[in-house]
Structures are given as structure tokens and as C-alpha cells.
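Hi all, a correction to my earlier message: I attached the wrong file for V-type proton ATPase subunit G. Here's the right sequence:
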Amino acid sequence: MEANRGQNGIQLLLAAEQEAQHIVNAARNAKMTRLKQAKEEADKEIAQFRAQMEAEFQRKLAESSGDSGANVKRLEQETEAKIGHLKTQASTISRDVVQMLLKHVTTVKN
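and the right structure:
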């Protein structure tokens, strides 16, 4: 009878061990499923963020490249205006400068 009771105890322990193994496996599978889901959600968020940053970059690139043509024209106009102003100033004082140089070159100091 005692051998029978010992046998039943071993059977109960083996059944409890199998049940515990099933619980652990179920928990492990649930954890893996949650991890996969979290990774998929993170990948989606990353893709959305990357697309948003790329769109913003392209927008800024288009703004800056569109302005560069206007900037070049504006700078060319400003440069031409400054060159014209300098030529006008040079022509008005060139006679005075020539006279001053001739005076200094031809004057002899003792």
C-alpha cells in the first residue's frame, strides 16, 4: 500500500511538473508575441518619423534651391549697381587725382 502511495506521489509530481512546464511555455510564447508586436509598432513609428523628416528635408531643400536663383539675380544686380557707382565716382575724381600726381612728381623739394 505504501508503495502504491509513493507511486501516486511520483505521478502527482510528474503531472505538476508538466503543468508547470506548460505554464512557462505559454508565458514565454506570450512574451515573444508581445515583443514581436512591440517591434512591429516601433518599426512603424520609425518609418513614419523617417518619412516625416525626409519630407521636411525635401521641403527645405526645395525652398533653399528655389531661392538660390533669386539670390543670384539679386546679387548680380547689386554688384552691377556697385560697379556703376564706383565707375561714376572714379570718373569724377580721376582728373583731380591726375593733377595731384603730376604736381607731386614735378615738384622738386630742396
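Sorry for the mix-up. The chain is about 95% helix and 0% strand.
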